[in-house]
Every structure is written in structure tokens, then in C-alpha cells.
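Checklist before submission:
- one chain only
- standard amino acids only
- sequence pasted in full

Submission:
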Amino acid sequence: MLPGFIEVDVVMTGAVLIVLALAAREDVLRHRIPNTLNASALLLGVGLASLAGGWSGFVDSVGGAAMGFAALFPFYLRRGMGAGDVKLMAAAGAYLDPISALLAVAVALVAGVFVAVAIVARRQAEGRLLHDAAPAGEATAVWRAAAAVLSVRHERFPYAVAIGIGVAAALAWNGSLGGLWAALGIA
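Returned file contents:
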């Protein structure tokens, strides 16, 4: 590393974390991930990877983007997640190699289960509030659970949060997160 300059790998790690934070914010607040954010992130990731690793960096970046897209696309087809989530995973994959992107997807899927459980638990707590408002004789545990499940079936949930967790785990696994912390003087 040249004195006064930050390594491109460190910039890539910081950039993808910023993109994921912006995407998670938008997903939580608006239930959308803007196409401009995904497209810009994808192009920046491929560009930075190419700058850092030349042709092999380009190939790894495109492979990571393709892996992220391909792994989540079936969930989109089954209406399990939105197109913005799939595009975000592809954009984040551009900052990773294909193996790290696959790891990010796997961790994101597990994290998504935990996010979904948290949403169901919240809805069940709200269902308890419905208990007081329910007609006499219908305020059973089964009725509350059914109301919670039905309300969650149509709820959008911010999958960008789970994708962010998955990508952060992959960055920790491949050492990029440690490199960022070291460059920032945190580690």
C-alpha cells in the first residue's frame, strides 16, 4: 500500500457496507430498494474489483454478482421475495467472489428466517391486543395465532437487512471486514 492511499479492497468493503445500510434503510422505511442504488452499486463493485484485481478481479466480481442473482432468483419466482432483494444480492455479490457470494446468500437465508420469526412474534403480540377486541367466544389462542399468521402472509418484510447480515458474514469470513477495521484503526 502506498503511503496516504487506501487499498482498493478496503474501499470495496466500505462501499458495499454503505450500500447495504442504505438499502436496508429504504427497505425498512419504504419497502423498496431503488433500482438506481442497485445498478450503481453493481457497476461500482465491478469497477473496483477490476481496478483491484485486473481481469481476474472482473471475473470474480461478475461471478459473485451472477451467483448472488442466481441463488435468490428462484425465491423471487415463487413470490418469496421482491425483485429489489434479488438485485441487491447481485449488486453485493459484485464485491465478493462467487464462493463468498454463495456464503452470503446462505447466511442471508438463515438470517431471513430469524427476521420472519421476529415479525411473527410481533404480530402475535398484536394478536393478543386483538383478544380484548374480539367478539365473545372467539378470543382463543387459536384465533389469535391464526390472525397473526394471516396478517404476516401479506406483510412485506425488509429482506435487505438479512442480505446485509449475510454479506457482512461473508466479508468477515474472507478477511475483508478485518482489513477495513485495521485501515480505520479499529482493530
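Reviewer check: The longest helix spans residues 35-77.
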